[in-house]
Design a protein that fits this description.
- This protein is of the alpha/beta class.
- The protein contains 15 helices and 13 strands.
- The protein has helices at about 30-40, 55-60, 80-95, 125, 135-150, 160-170, 195-205, 225-235, 255-260, 280-285, 300-305, 320-325, 335-345, 350-365, 370-390; strands spanning about 15-20, 45-50, 65-70, 100-105, 115-120, 155, 175-180, 210-215, 240-245, 270, 290, 310-315, 330.
- The strands form two sheets. A seven-stranded parallel sheet has the order 3-2-1-4-5-6-7, with helices on both faces.
């Protein structure tokens, strides 16, 4: 699916990108913002980044040509950050002469004198609200609607997300710009022996083969079904592999129940949040990566796993086929379907090798340079649309 937009030449706008919502432990959104900032800076964009004080050094190194502005206020809570966004951010944009404010995580200043671009990462707060806490789902549904109605342009990472927003939130596709994510090949690459060894030693895996999962342990990631499917696939195996669950702790309480019900002979490791420099070793050192998500706006862990030379097992939900194409293996989302997918890849070494090679080739099609170019088009369009309303 493609969407055509009127693109009008517009003088290169000055962009203020609000990175204050990025958490200290970088998940998918944090990796998106960090990589986009670096790519925009490298591409020569007229860029200013406002961030949490703890991130000043990071963004200074990522974007040496850009203006990095630490937020003066304490923004430790969501309430404090939202209040700052509605009051201080618009004044900051005016003070530094910004033409466009880019808000990369659903919310935006409702009253401002410059153009607004908002990134909407997915539509699951509408389509699968049960996969989120009630408060979180209501909050992001409200802000998605506000951003769709008030921002000049909304950026989405996939055609699937654009279509879903049109279907469930009444989005005008003329205000949407599709900008797929890229992959940071400095961090996500086929690992060398030392990188694999470091992860194995950290997790005390030694020589045991393992299947990897990377992502927050939240209901949307379908981790309880992965655990049960892994147990079914390994039933009767004399030397089963381990399952490594890496990522931030989430609020999926069913994970603990699934872990408690798994056979004691199986080794399932909750690795928690791992440093960036260990993720290539984790993903590339695995037998394959299993990511049986119930729905993604993009699916960055799938792309990152492919870039690390790992075979990937995922689902056909929403955007995941846009990322994986024919370079990944697919399964359903139930325990039994996941078990069948795992068992098939455990048996077929040649297929794992084929997928790993195909994944590496496909991952090269997704670059942050291309994403930065698409974002800059969105900024120019937003500035043009704003100028027409004055």
């Amino acid at each position: 699916m493609t969407f055509s937009l009127l693109v009008v030449p517009y003088p290169d706008p000055r962009i203020l990108l609000d990175a204050t919502a990025v958490p200290a432990d970088r998940g998918g959104v944090g990796r998106y913002v960090d990589a986009l900032v670096a790519a925009l800076d490298s591409d020569g964009a007229d860029l200013a980044v406002v961030c949490q004080p703890r991130d000043t050094s990071l963004y200074t190194s990522l974007a040496p040509r850009s203006e990095i502005i630490p937020a003066a206020e304490s923004l430790a809570t969501r309430t404090a950050r939202l209040s700052w966004e509605q009051t201080t951010l618009p004044r900051l944009a005016t003070r530094i002469g910004a033409t466009v404010v880019h808000s990369p995580h659903y919310t935006m200043p409702l009253v401002r004198s410059v153009a607004s671009v908002v990134t909407l990462h997915d539509a699951t707060f509408f389509t699968d609200s049960n996969l989120h806490s009630m408060v979180k789902a209501r909050f992001f549904r409200t802000w998605t609607r506000w951003s769709l109605s008030r921002a000049e342009v909304c950026v989405v990472p996939s055609a699937a997300t654009a279509a879903e927003l049109g279907r469930v939130a009444g989005a005008d596709i003329r205000t949407l710009r599709i900008a797929p994510h890229g992959v940071d090949t400095d961090r996500f690459h086929p690992p060398n022996a030392a990188e694999v060894k470091a992860v194995r030693e950290r997790l005390r895996l030694f020589d045991q083969p393992y299947i990897a999962f990377l992502g927050a342990l939240e209901p949307r990631k379908n981790v309880p079904a992965l655990i049960r499917g892994f147990a079914k696939a390994c039933a009767g195996m004399a030397d089963p592999p381990a399952l490594v669950l890496a990522g931030q702790p989430g609020w999926d309480h069913k994970v603990e129940r699934a872990l408690s019900q798994a056979p004691h002979k199986l080794r399932i490791i909750r690795a928690g949040y791992l440093p960036f420099d260990e993720l290539a070793g984790l993903l590339g050192g695995s037998l394959f990566v299993a990511y049986p998500s119930l729905g993604e706006g993009f699916g960055l862990p799938v792309l990152e796993a492919m870039a690390c030379g790992s075979a990937v097992l995922t689902t056909r939900k929403l955007s995941l086929p846009e990322v994986g194409g024919e370079a990944v293996a697919y399964c359903g989302t139930s325990d039994s379907e996941i078990a069948a997918g795992i068992a098939g890849l455990l048996r077929d070494t040649a297929e794992r090798d084929r997928l790993a090679e195909a994944g590496l080739r496909r991952a090269k099609e997704f670059t942050w340079e291309q994403s930065a170019t698409q974002h800059r088009t969105a900024y120019g369009l937003a500035a043009y649309l704003r100028s027409r309303t004055r």
